[in-house]
Amino acid sequence: MSETGKPISRIDGRMKVSGKATYSAENNFPNIAYAFPVRATIAKGRIVSIDDAVIQKEPGVIAVISYKNAFKLKPLDMQAQAKAGAAFLGENLPPLQDNVVHYPGQFIAVIVAETYEQARTAAYKLKIGYTSEKGAVDLKTELPNSEKPKMFMGEEAQVNDGKAAAPLAAASHKVEHTYSTPVEHHHPMEPHATVAVWEGTDKLTLYDATQGVGFTGSIAAYFLGLQKENVRVIAPFVGGGFGSKGLWLHTLLVAMAAKAVGRPVKLALTRQMMQTNVGHRASTIQRVALGTDAVGQLGVVRHHTGTYNNLTQFFEPSGKQSLVLYQAPQREVTYNVAHLDRSAPTFMRAPGETPGTFALESAMDEMAYQLKVDPIEFRIKNHTTKDPVKGHDFSSEFLLDCYRIGAEHFGWSSRSMEPRQKRHGKYLVGYGMATATYPGGRSAASVKVNMNAKGDVTVMTASIDIGTGTYTVLAQTAADALGVPVNRIDVKIGDSSFPPAPLAGGSQTTASIHPAALDACVLLRKELTALAIADPNSKLNGRNPDDIDHADGKLFVKGDNSKSDTYLNILSRAKRSEIEACATTLPISGAGLTIPSALCTPSQTPPEQNSDVKQYAFHSFGAQFAEVWVDEDFGTIRVKRFTSVQDVGRIMNEKTARSQVIGGVIFGIGAALMEATEYDKRWGNPVTRTLADYHVPVHLDVPPIDVHFIGKPDPHISPIGARGIGEIGITGVSAAIANAVFNATGKRLRDLPLTPEKFF
Ligand code: MOS
């Protein structure tokens, strides 16, 4: 009777493709006004004058807001913010609070007008005077002046600094190379947008394109000086995020603007603004060294990353996978972080692993070639079943099966070790592979379940569907837990007034909210069971609750289907119009975790059913295989087919899971072959500003992608057994492609993206 796992199409799919799903920018209100931001045109400096005389006469202009007259926000205070759950303001720069310009494109004013066009026209006419300094705009130039940060997101950033030198010098075989990756932008299909509606002066509703309604609400409340309960954030549909939809400054700007003009205000970012104002993946220059003994046993891995940041503690953690993969006893993972006068970098799909697996998995291929060993054999020889640094067993790990299944489906055995052996007409054909990995995260979450007298079920949680399938898989879990068909289940998410759930980031949504959904359904069933048992008119009267099972909208005595009672009858005889239960689940041993809300009391889940981070290391693994065709005359690379095998625990929905991996692989093809944001070396402004020059894969760039899952539930992460799946699909992809290019041509390309000029 299991709905879980079935390839059910998205229950929200029809609404999305027929235009009935309301996205943030589509929320309209009587008397709504429109905001358009004004952006700095210098790299660094100060605003010395703002002349709005010209635009005050422009038709429709209602307000010109700048540092001179803007609402005073709470200042930055990391400790107070952390306490308020407001640590992750995308950019540590509460907007319009002073006249300092930190980077080109910074929001420095906002125009509010009767129409979008009027606001936009006026914004371009606002006259700003500056004093300007030269900004730091180039990573290579600035790296010599960089710092070695102590911490990254609460973990030690510099691991075993300097310890790899001796074992590397003693290694029988060594490879050491520099790999570099460019700035990339998320560019979700739906640009960021917010509609702000105030009720009086202390209650605010934000219709915001966000990956976390509770997350955004906490941060907005903090900076606007409001009670958290008084900021409601609504986002039932979000058109992709990939890490860019945290809280960025436009959301505060529009709240400030709406307060100033006393009307609802809408602000929608342009695609050009998305190249500057909502984060990006910073470029990296990575140095990877591997050392093996005479027979190819890895003894040492060293991974150093040079990158940059500004206005954030975040930096691209591209050494992450080098602390997780393979058996080498000695590993050194370090970072240098320079300062650039550029907008803040942020989390972008598999932050760290995306550029990091390019470097590590390319180096693994280089070592295998040097050793004259098949790259899969080399990885199998160095496989680990434990976290190689912390020593914990992986909670559930089938990486060797991923290699084997991938090799079979891909036809790896027909690959030749030596490059330049396969041709198709004028094309050189090559095969490459790489390992994929991403942490299996899980956070505290609360879910409420309601059943009405008609037997309709509503599942509520402040989670988000950023295109991943959250609506659908939640319905499947509730359907199984209650014995009710999927089509009787209404999932309500994307509203901070529902019980709290984590940000839809870090691939943790499924792993976090499903245990809570399951518990809430179990509590609901318990209550129905108690009602039936106590009712003399029920066939279950007087039974032991442990003898009762459920299916098809009813409870029955185990092994005796004739002794049953339907949910409808139980509720009707008890004169109940509805019944409701709410559960909070949290991974145990998660240091510092607090019960997220008074909305739900934590359920009495036996601790062994929760994930124990003290005992196990939670990671997902996979294997990526690429076939490329290279035209040596032009330096062009085509990915002809791709095989991806993923070990991500239980598969909740075969179809939405597959879509996640396909999306990840396409994202990886973009990173491997075309995506790069280029900056003007003089002024530091992006010169690739739209999707016309920031190239992403189009249909013709994407080959058939063959996806397989191991599908074995992780017994330790939760009673559901699912780890996340959003991010692992991109990891290893660019290395698999670059390794295939080497196999095709004998050329080792170490600087992404692999655009044609890199061949010559
Ligand atoms: Mo993901 S980069 O944590 O949205």
UniProtKB/TrEMBL annotation:
A Pfam family per the record: MoCoBD_2
Transmembrane segments: none
Keyword Oxidoreductase: yes
Keywords assigned: Molybdenum, Oxidoreductase
Molecular-function GO term, any one: oxidoreductase activity
Aldehyde oxidase/xanthine dehydrogenase a/b hammerhead domain span: 18-134
SUPFAM superfamilies according to UniProt: CO dehydrogenase molybdoprotein N-domain-like, Molybdenum cofactor-binding domain
Name under which the protein is recorded: Dehydrogenase
